[in-house]
UniProtKB/TrEMBL annotation:
Originating species: Desulfobaculum bizertense DSM 18034
Alphabetized UniProt keyword annotations: Flavoprotein
GO molecular function annotations of the record: FMN binding; oxidoreductase activity, acting on the CH-NH group of donors, NAD or NADP as acceptor
InterPro entries linked: Flavin_Rdtase-like_dom (IPR002563), Flavoredoxin (IPR052174), Split_barrel_FMN-bd (IPR012349)
One Pfam family it belongs to: Flavin_Reduct
Family under the similarity heading: Belongs to the flavoredoxin family.
Cofactor(s), by name: FMN
Gene3D superfamilies for the chain: Electron Transport, Fmn-binding Protein, Chain A
UniProt domain Flavin reductase like: residue ranges: 11-152
Keyword Flavoprotein included in the entry's annotation: yes
Protein name: NADH-FMN oxidoreductase RutF, flavin reductase (DIM6/NTAB) family
UniProt keyword Amino-acid biosynthesis, yes or no: no
Amino acid sequence: MKEQIGALNALYPSLTTLVGAVVNGRENFIAVAHVGILKHSKNPYLTIALAKVHHTNKGIHDHQAFSVCVPSQKMVEITDYCGLVSGKNTDKSQLFDVFYGETSFAPMIKQCPVCMECTVHDVVDLKSHDIFIGEVKRTHVDPAVLDGKDIDITKVQPLLFDMASKKYFSLGEPVADCWSVGKALKKKD
């Protein structure tokens, strides 16, 4: 028998990202682990959920653009810092080497192995949070983390965030091949 522990979101660990926006004329970055994939293939979409009190929200609302960068494990200290301090009080524009793609107002971080420039498709307005639905316009990848044309997550070495323990984790070893390991059970049908 399982123990009922209340209404707890138990979808952790989640990918830690650095979301970038231009706020009041200055690049700002915030650590965000509440990200989601809405559509993976052609014309991909993603979501980021930010509490309304965050400084970054203003820039995303104003310019209808943002970036989502995936920091590596070696960036854990500066990534955590970006989640600890607010751009309202701290200039985070000088923390990274910043670059832009074709989407204005979506600053990206050269040190991150993967960055996506996004435009706002829609905003879901919850009482405490803005859920930004972004259309991924272009993805920028460090060639060192590519395996052919695919991103090799073992080379990216992303940070995984766990809310319960308040810790960052690394990836483990692969368990099985997707859309393959279950075929043995399918044959029994």
